Amino acid sequence: MKNEQGEVTHYFSTFSDISERVAAEERIRQLAFYDTLTGLPNRATIYSLLEQALAEARRNKQSGALMFIDLDRFKYVNDTLGHGAGDELIRHVATRFKTCLRASDVIARLGGDEFVIALIDITKADDAAIVAEKILAIFSSPFMIDGHEISISASIGISVYPTDGMAVEDLVKYADIAMYRAKDQGRSSFLFYSNDMNVRSLEKLEMESSLRRALDLGELLLHYQPQADIHTGAIVGAEVLLRWQHPGLGMVSPGQFIPLAEDTGLIVPIGQWVMEQAVAQNRSWQQSGVPVVKLAVNLSAQQFRLPLVEEISAVLARHGLAHKYLELEITESMVMSNVERVIGMLDDLAVLGVPMALDDFGTGYSSLSYLKRFPIDKLKVDQSFVRGIPHDADDVVITRAIIALGKSLGLKVIAEGVETREQLEFLRKEGCDEIQGYLFSHPVPAEDFLKLLVGGIRFEV
Predict the structure, then answer these.
(1) What global pTM score does this model have?
(2) Domain formed by 34-193, architecture
């Protein structure tokens, strides 16, 4: 401010507190570049960090390794305990990961249950293996989450710079491929990437693409394996089994494409197609005067996420098939993935009059406290037990116990995988009701099964 002579006599100043703005900008930066659950760099940040690390490795002529980590059975935790517990588990896992790493190493969470770790300046691939073993070891003790003791594991894929690639995108892709191979081989393990993995990964991708088209192109078909009364040999039903007639590969093994359908979610539309076709086929046979039998259809765990009860009821109504001629085969593990919800749906199906069989009994949870709650009509003895009869003492004891348990609960018992007369005689003596297996018939196309029904074939028992 100036006086009358134009001289400056005073100054005015203004100021504002920008600390809130700075804090807000920092918060925005944190949200943009770091995972809110763990505080680790996120997917948007990790690639720039990896580029910097690779540039430094090139300058210093160093080697490095990239790990792609996926938690095993994490989805089960989310489904059973809720997403809050899942989030807390992720935080605990991230904390344990840090105990295995050096200050120079980089770790990020890509999202869900996936993490990436970059090991900077390693002298040999074995160094990465040592770190991978340390990471697997941190899962040896359970996590305490909301009063629950949770035991999980991890699968790890490893790619090495510069051996496997020079670009970040390639190293991440190769580590991801190796991780899935580790998961396929039993989980709780690590594998280094190799070129043949990429070939198999491409083959899997091509098979997935072909499977997506298979429904529309009419390449999927149903075979039927007869189920017979153990005393009379009369056919009382059949298990409906899916087959894929690929134009180039021929008959693709269910062991190849069913797991792929499960992994990709294709099992849902395929399962719906199987249900529709089986019900329509059975009704068609009945209308043509063929002896009436029950057809057993396997359900996938993923189908329980749909309005399954309404869907099955609609299919039966659409084709006019009585509910008692459709049997649903479920597994223990399927029910245990979400006990209360699945049992509720099974109860609704039972009210409708749809019979149910518990498949693969004895190979999964085998919890008797849950078994008595399942509204099932039949126990199915898994072929892995039948196969060892009568020479394997353990299989004999287990099969005998399953049959006795089923009878005590008032359930029918069927044994699958029956291939010898000795197995047949043992099962009959122990009180088994029905049998299924190569001793009587392989799974056969609809026209061949129809001939068995029309001819009134009775298997020799």
Answers:
(1) 0.66
(2) 2-Layer Sandwich (3.30)
